[in-house]
Amino acid sequence: MATENKNLSEYDKNTIPNAKDFRFGIVVSEWNDVITEGLYNGAFEALIDCDVPAQQIIRWNVPGSFELIYGAKKMLQTQNVDAVIVIGCVIQGETKHFDFVCEGVTQGIKDLNVQTDIPVIFCVLTDNNMQQSIDRSGGVHGNKGTEAAIAAIKMAYIRQQASISHPFNQPLLSSGALQIEETPIKIEKE
After folding, report:
1. Residues in the active site?
2. Which of 108, 127, 130, 145 stands 20 to 30 A from 138 (CA)?
3. pTM given for the model
4. Is 66 helix (H, G, I), strand (E, B) or coil?
């Protein structure tokens, strides 16, 4: 188990970029709200601890984890955010519904990351039982929401740094190759 030997709430503030000027969106599923509220609290507290002003954190609720995709998409389109964290919890039941929801949410959030220029951080627990979710939302393994907030700060910083123009940056062709503008070289003879 990936979190068995790791506390999700631990981070070294000295390794995290300055986040005071970033603006974050958090989209929270209301399904399994005991868990998602714990995850939200972990994310919110970590952002505040990393100097993000509370007024620069926008929260939207959606009914369930599947709706996180649409909520995140609309937040990306309408809010001026540097990153979005999606928070949900899907717990294995007796049917295949768990598999469909987990796959759909995972692919939907992946698609948003591919299609947009703003990072969307995946904080959706997909556990076998309620105890595993409790353990990862402020329990014995810490809080996945905290980990997601730190990831959001780091990704917002990467986005910011990547947008800074450098003289060696060249536009890419649709094939992924560098587009290099040819400039004729004039050789003057004396």
Report:
1. 97 (proton donor)
2. 108
3. 0.83
4. coil
